Amino acid sequence: MPVVVVESPAKAKTIEKYLGGDYRVLASFGHVRDLPPKDGSVDTENDFDMKWEVAADSRKHLKAIKDALKDDQTLILATDPDREGEAISWHLLEALQTSLKKGAAVSRVTFNAITKTAVTEAMAKPRQIDQPLVDAYLARRALDYLVGFNLSPVLWRKLPGAKSAGRVQSVCLRLIVDREMEIEAFKAREYWSVHARLATPGGEEYDATLVSLAGKRLDRFDLATAEQAAMALSAVASRDLKVASVAAKPASRNPWPPFMTSTLQQEASRKLGMGAKACMSAAQRLYEAGLITYMRTDGIDMAPEAVMAARDAIKAKFGEKYLPKSPRMYKNKAKNAQEAHECIRPTDMMASPDRLKLTADDQRKLYDLIWKRTIASQMEAARMERTTVEIASADDQVGLRATGQVMLFDGFLRVYDQGRDDDEGEDGARLPAITQGEAARLVSHAFDDEMTKARDKGGDAVSAPAGQRGAPGLLINDAASSAARQHFTQPPPRYTEATMVKRMEELGIGRPSTYASIVTTIQDRDYVRKDKNRLIPEDKGRLVTIFLLKYFPRYVSYDFTADLETELDEISAGDRMWREVLGRFWKDFSKALEGTSELRITEVLEAIDDALAPHLYPPRADGGDPRICPLCNAGRLNLKTARSGGAFIGCTNYPECRYTRPLSAPDGEEPVGDRVLGEDAGDQISLKTGRFGPYVQRGEASEEVPKPPRSSIPKGWGAAKLDLDQAVQLLALPRPVGPHPEDGVLIEAGIGRFGPYVKHGSKYANIADVDEVFTIGMNRAVEVLAAKQVRGGRGAAAAPLREMGEHPDGGPIQVMGGKYGPYVKWAKVNATLPRDVTPEDLTVDQALELIAAKAAKSPSKTTRKPAAKKPATAAAKKPGAKKAAPKKAAAKKPAAKKPAAKASDAEDTGGDVIDEG
Hints:
The protein contains 26 helices and 35 strands. By secondary structure, it is α+β, with helices and mostly antiparallel strands.
């Protein structure tokens, strides 16, 4: 029977169900070949000839395909319908050439959705592999290899502690670093706004904002001080007001287009708190289950039959009035739109989220988002009435404005409204019926609650003139009918994953399939950390960015990277030759590499030191030189590297002065240097700062005591405010609590690598609060230790978090809790759960797939059927079984690839090659 090859076993299972018993469907498990991580994999001297290597994990999958082809030489390549999918098909064909006889029938089929109709229609319209798409992949892969494999070693040699660079990864990192520098350079500007609570003659209240004063229209910064705000407040409170005009204008809002990859990632981040990687993982499962169309696309157009199905669903669920007279058509504006792909939409418009009842929480939420966005995109516009009310004093010295809107017809908003990254300032307040010429009465005590809350927050109250009251950031008149609020301009916000993807899309950097992996890579490299969903550059990321901007400015240029993406699109369209594009790139890039060959590390550090000076040496409060060493007051501070890698700030008077500090302090604290806290028991107690942060030390290092007692400052303790008593407490740890009441063994409390703990013999139990280490008593300590024993420690077999049922080959499948997170256990196979999958949401199919993938990586550590293992173990104990030992050793041979995998960091830096499986 014909052999159909797809990327993943889940996809294979679904397609085999549609095709029936006439086809054999097998999975390649993603790419079967890649460039080996070594010099010469792309031969720049031989027209960029590329040397491919079959991955060890892929050999058995290829063998299964080859074995199936022995019975039928009909090969159908059905990988994903994008550039990456085309590349996987090409790799498969190349790797299977030796197994295909003359006259073998090889074809390529693609489908945008895994439904029976889509699959059977695709099988009826086979084609050959699209060579321009493959050429675009080859160019991209070669570019990423040449940049990553040649630039990363330069970083390792010239910038200790740096891990890697990549063609797209480094540009993404630059975006985050540039934004952080904008934030640091930002100077807040003060301004005030004045508001009043007014009432109609019928007593209905509404809020208005001061927009003109002394006959002049107010701009944002016209009320720049509290004094000016107080004068404006007095002007409002001392005048009778009336409604000068009421203008009501109809307005409408059209729905958003259906999702493409980037907008799906942005909405999943905004509404579901889902990272780009987690979003794409959930979307992949939905696609493989046949519930949505292909999820890697730049397209927003929808197939005509899908549009009509959406209209039918709208009519059935919401009625005729929500259906526009004609279908809505959406077209792409992006210049680098990916090869003709439809938008991301449900395959069945009638399959609303409540009908599907998906068990996986992330898939259920994401499908709900996709279904609502798709249905809303074909619904009637929302209609509203926006009202603007102008209020003025009789002498026209004071003018206020009230705005609001009334929803006349909700339209698509009944189903869906797009989230926002930041406040866009749209005023949705409802206004009462207001008539031109009527009085606008000031309402007393309207702002009393706001005043109370402002005072409760604490801080310095604003000085108020007679007739007014002040609180931190607030002034109100004595009648509390009007208020002046203090504001400060805000710096641009740090990027979230959603706004990062949006910005990369605007600049034309990367592809939809790469966004998730790029953002993940820079976090994995410790160049960026995520805090409260915001991306913050680490010092290491700053150093790498400044180095690249200094010595390779062209290759971290936004325009250059976007132009290169355009050239790759032109290759995929057949308008450019991929080797010519590589040739032009390599000619200039190799010269830039040669230009750094003579660089000394000291030169690099000096250049980075100068570039980062505003960040490393912020202005001092006393106006002194920020580079003067605060310890010796003689040496100057500069950037230094440590023997073990990384960088720190040190004094030029070393070794006489040993002042050091990290490049930046955590959580915005002011970096602190060495200082003496006092004496205890005849020893000098000092606060010092090393590469890993501040610590306290008893005495000084000497020949007799080369390593004096030290203790790191726990998280949550500010080093700048640390006193002698706290330091002595830290140096006295671990603290004896007393003998255990059952066995008399001493219980101790201390702070270790994993935080505060209590210890009983060799058993440890964590404590939640650092301060409790110094106060915990016997009863509490015994309780904590007992609770740890119940949960299961090293001495007891841990209870499963969840029982998944029997494996098809026998034996239970369990979800266990491990030191590094939950994992699936079957026989001797332990497969870690992906970060975006919780034990509660894990399905049996997902568990089997994780087990199969893990078993494929470690064939020598598992057997297919655990039940058959006991006799084999018994036989191994017999004398005649000794000859089997060499075979066992041979089976472990693939493990020798581990060092090569580590080296692949240099290759896998661009984050542009995605394993579609």
